[in-house]
Amino acid sequence: MNIRKANLNDAKGIAKVHVDSWRTTYRNIIPDHFLQSLSYDQRTDIWNQNFSNKRNFIYVAENNEGEIIGFGTCGKREKNKVEHSGDLTSIYLLEEYQGTGIGKQLLKQLFNQFKELNFNSVFVEVLEDNKTRYFYEYYGAELLKSEKINMAGKELNLLVYEWKDIENVLAKF
Hints:
By secondary structure, the protein is an alpha+beta fold.
């Protein structure tokens, strides 16, 4: 397994993981019609755009055959007005690689990126029914607030967590 900074050539592989992991992670959370409407081509286009935004930091996890099996992204969202803070925007892994320590390695890489950017705190948004929230809590994220959102015609609870000390998170690795 290898974690590395992603490049534009990775867009198609990231898109495949994005679609496949959404379909497993959000099964029974987000309506099936929405999950089935996700397309590799559409997500590849989105990832090509994501690479053009210099505020995005994108990392991939590869298996021993060099195939992308997961990714993590971070930066600072435009809506984030808190000084010296950033946002963990995603960590996704193919279902068969979940629970193997790869998510932990992606999290570590993202927090090293936050440290390099001189951020003091980090925010992450996660759906309440997404079990990944427990992963974030394990690494010290504290619930800041909950808000209602509408996704694919379904009302969901979006939880916003905060890590107040990047060094404390990095000390857990």
